[in-house]
Design a protein that fits this description.
The protein is α/β, with parallel strands linked by helices. The chain has two domains: 146 residues, ATPase, nucleotide binding domain (Nucleotidyltransferase, domain 5, 2-Layer Sandwich); 183 residues, ATPase, nucleotide binding domain (Nucleotidyltransferase, domain 5), CATH 3.30.420.40. Helix content is 39%, strand content 20%. The strands form two sheets. The protein has an eight-stranded mixed beta sheet with strand order 5-4-3-2-1-6-8-7, with helices on both faces. Helix 1 crosses helix 3. The longest helix is centred in the C-terminal third of the chain and has 25 residues. The protein binds adenosine monophosphate. The site of adenosine monophosphate has 12 residues, from helix 10 and helix 12.
């Protein structure tokens, strides 16, 4: 069975075609600058040369059709007929409290995605356009919505309630939702398998740290807490996002600089985090290089980042009254061994010891980086959100 996975951004569309008998990627690619001059499709078929097609893509409908044409292209294609695609899995950002798992798209699902536009103003509209474009291009083929928020819907009230007047929760649904759910679900499940834990008696903490970042506490396979909130701005320090901050500091800056609330949130989302503290870059590689060259602010940014991750991990040990495994994933978590070492040096109170050689060795690949006598297993597990979306889609349509 072949499953197409689609991830629509406001001006982009990423795709991967999976052969689910072997769970392998047949082709993947990205349409960029949709609706903007200079749009292009980069297509990478497995076992063939990649190609770039520069062509106007005024909207996602045109982009989806271009992707399908490319998949059946006599030279660059990987299938003979679009009819070989059994279903399409869509990454969708926000479903608020409506869906706790993935679901086959119908009119109700589309209405929910639409109702959540306010919560994900950049992503949800694009996600819906992607779904409708596939419905148009492949009539009769099932579309499945896989929500970033779904895995976190098992959080108890004490974890998701903000301590603000209750009416805002009742009127607007203001609460913690959490994101990167597909990744946290995929990685925590894998960690339980790899560490040989009993799922129904397991305590796993996932540190998904990339350009965006979030930690989650997964008790007996279910999420009980996560660091992102109503939006992906809360929690860890990120590439350009502040994470946790005193709201009164935001008011103070706004008053001093004559900025309104929307401008302030834009600054917290786009000009803060590692970029904001270091003044160098949002990319950990650049900031690490600057720190090595003696840039004090770059060093502070990296240590503040590590400290924030360590504090979240500590709070989740408390939330679950223990931990069996801590897992690193995403761009930084999978590749940045020095950052993992920085974070793990805060964990000696847990009886955790790190095998420095193993930590250095596992970059972008799965492995255990704690020593055999460490009280808690510390692992690197590459995330694969696309495969997880394909697996969930298959589960619902087979
Ligand atoms: P993601 O958002 O998961 O794609 O992660 C992007 C982040 O991962 C960027 O800030 C990169 O600096 C970081 N990253 C990717 N590869 C490496 C690497 N080899 N060493 C250090 N950081 C890396």
């Amino acid at each position: 069975m072949k499953i197409l996975v689609i991830n629509c951004g406001s001006s982009s569309l990423k795709y991967q075609l999976f052969d689910m008998t072997s769970e392998t990627v047949m082709a993947k690619g990205i349409c960029e600058r949709i609706g903007i001059q200079g749009s292009a499709l980069t297509h990478k078929p497995s076992g063939k040369d990649s190609c770039v097609v520069e062509k106007d893509m005024p909207d996602h409908k045109v982009a989806v059709q271009m992707v399908l044409d490319m998949l059946v292209d006599p030279v660059h294609g990987v299938i003979a007929d679009v009819k070989e695609i059994s279903a399409v899995g869509h990454r969708v950002l926000h479903a608020a409290q409506k869906y706790i798992e993935s679901i086959v798209v119908n009119e109700d699902v589309k209405a929910t995605v639409r109702e959540c536009f306010d919560f994900g103003p950049l992503h949800n509209p694009a996600n819906l356009i992607g779904i409708e474009a596939c419905e148009h291009a492949m009539p009769g083929v099932k579309n499945v919505a896989v929500f970033d928020t779904a895995f976190h819907q098992t959080m108890p009230e004490k974890a998701y309630m903000y301590a603000i007047p209750y009416e805002y929760y009742e009127k607007y649904g203001i609460r913690k939702y959490g994101f990167h759910g597909t990744s946290h679900a995929f990685v925590s499940k894998k960690a339980i398998e790899v560490a040989g834990l009993d799922k129904d008696n397991s305590k796993v903490i996932v540190c998904h740290i990339g350009n965006g970042g979030s930690c989650s506490a997964v008790l007996n396979g279910k999420c009980v807490d996560t660091s992102m909130g109503l939006t992906p701005l809360e929690g860890l320090i990120m590439g350009t996002r502040s994470g946790d901050i005193d709201p009164a500091a935001v008011q103070f800056i706004a008053n001093k600089e004559g900025k309104d609330i929307n401008e302030m949130v834009e600054i917290l989302n786009k000009k803060s985090g590692i970029l904001g503290i270091s003044g160098v870059s949002s990319d950990f590689r650049d900031v690490t290089k600057a720190s090595k060259e003696g840039n004090h602010r770059a060093e502070v940014a990296l240590e503040a980042f590590a400290y924030r991750v360590a504090k979240y991990v500590g709070s989740y040990v408390a939330a679950m009254n223990g931990v069996d495994a801590i897992v690193f994933t995403a761009g930084v978590g999978e590749n940045d061994a020095p950052m993992r070492a920085r974070i793990c040096k805060y964990f000696t109170y847990l009886g955790i010891t790190i095998d420095e050689e193993a930590n250095d060795k596992f970059r972008g690949v799965e492995g255990t980086i704690s020593t055999p006598d460490s009280k808690v297993k510390v692992m690197v597990i590459p995330t694969n959100e696309e495969l997880k979306i394909a697996q969930e889609t298959l589960e619902l349509v087979k």
